[in-house]
Amino acid sequence: MLRLTKKMQDSIFLVVCLVVSSTLAESTQKSDINDIGMDRNTTNDLLVDDTLQKPNTGRSTILGGNALWKSPVPYVLDKSLDLNTKGVILRAFDQFRVKSCIDFKPRDTEEYYLSFKNLAGCWSYIGRTFINGQELSIDAGCDHIAIVEHTILHALGFYHEEIRHDRDDYVQINFDNVIAEQEGYFKKLGSDLSTTHNVSYDYLSVMHSGKNVLSNGNGSTIITKDPKFQNVIGQRLDMSPQDAQKLKLLYKCNSTVASMFFCDFSNGMMCQMSQMSSCAQSGSEWEVVTEVSSGPSTDHTTLPAGTGENGQKTGYFIYASTSSGQEGDSAWLGTKIMSTQRECKVQCLQFYYFHSGNESDELNIWIREFQDEHDTRGTLRLMGHITGLPTSHWKLHHVSLNATKNFQVVFEVQKGAGNSAGGFSIDDINLSETECPHVTLQIDNLERLLSISNIGTAIYSPRQYSKEGYAYRIVIGLYQTFLGMYVEILSGDNDDQLKWPCLQKQATFQMLDQTPNMKMQMSKQWSEVTQETHKLSNGISAWANPRKNGSIVFHENDEAVYGGIIFGYKYFAFLEELQTREFVKGGSAIFMFSFEDVTPLVNGNSLPCPQVRPMNITARSRNWDEGPCFLTG
């Protein structure tokens, strides 16, 4: 059972500082900041001695058989769990769905199921072990997505990476530095009882302990044979690509539950995407290219990240020109036809685009749904729309979809009224049966901004609205060697109809790993739930109506907008961390945020299916249902 050696702070303390507006924000008043605390960002010591075993079982990764679960794995969220922990567990389930064939479902009457409880610490049995509710403990200090993934992987059949039978080829255990009588933690698994699935040793595994685990204070207990991984082991961002690979091998599956489509055009091909020339107004088409004279000069996939190195010399992306032809001319490209699998009929389309045309040019995103196998034409619905000034960097874009039948995604570039020297480019497309993040904030030239900005400089997103109608914005604070990420509740159009204070909303802060394939990403995310215990010094709820208890922070359309506290993590990411993975790519970093009502989890085991908001776009210039609009191959 886990013994916590470093307690994560549950309390949230209030500090007041001057938030200096950047050029991306309007003039802002002095703001109160609720900092969740630096210790909240520490996970290294939370997974010591975190496995339990039935008597007389060998210490091994399971080899299969009756110890494997049947997917979807039934589960119950016990009332002993706090609300934030429940929300994080559900977010961890989505990571398994995106990266593996393992799904989860609320328990009905199944004998074998996982019972998530707060039993002091983070621990699990190995594999499917008990009927009538196999306990898995996630206490309030373990409510971090990587720790939850780690603990679930134990339940699915995984031991720690550093006790593989071949570990001595990759790491050295310094027993002189191990706490007395704790040497058994490092006992190797026998090759007769375990398997590595022929997957190489994974320093990045979320199942690997940190370098100082169970140290007596005299130095590290785990020394990597390759020194460049010494400060990598023990990462608690996310399960690694090899973790997901081993999970697929253990459960003998190749597919994933929620990933539907990915294309980075790395082979110079279109990934089964097809021109739809019968939809076009002229003969213009999409093409696969390596560069465009008006920009971009390279694809997004191979942009330098981390150390500045990229993976291949030549990268490809797709491009549709608007430099010739007449206003209204268009080029159409459709994905392969796909079917939805999950009960919740919501999908998230994610891609990077580069706009080098005229500000009146448009990139439209449609879905084309087919009623049945006899329907060859389908019905087009507009789901997303991009226009405006050209870009100087690749930009990430999300589009929420709600297809209920077989469908394809269709990209349309339409020429506007003005002169153009370029067009629209697209790269690194991902489509999944998950909900999109609620807000995305991309900061270009981030490392330069960190170095030249005054400490405390803030970058703000535009005002956003939650599903329930609460207004807010996200804030990135620049502190030269690190950055903070926060949310600020704002006054909005619906304040008179809302329930105040704004409680039981889970704020999830995320820094995106821009690895092209979302199944390979290891992003950083932290979550916290708005609670009644969050009080200001005057005793008022931190989540009270800012129109009544806040101060004016900016004006929008001649309206004063009021802001409340700025709540989040001052030490969200350090400069050294930004230089790992693909957190900064081509100079750009991407921050994402979700604000989810988790009230249904107070007495329940799941959240209702998300709803996609209708598009609010002005009328089109022509009838988009004209013509057969069939695929040309």
UniProtKB/TrEMBL annotation:
It is an enzyme of class 3 (hydrolase). Zn(2+) binds at residues 150, 154, 160. GO terms for cellular component: membrane. Its cofactor is Zn(2+). The keyword Cell membrane does not apply. GO terms for biological process: proteolysis. Its EC number is 3.4.24.-. One of its GO terms (molecular function) is zinc ion binding. Residues 60-254 form the Peptidase M12A domain. This is Metalloendopeptidase. It comes from Poecilia reticulata.
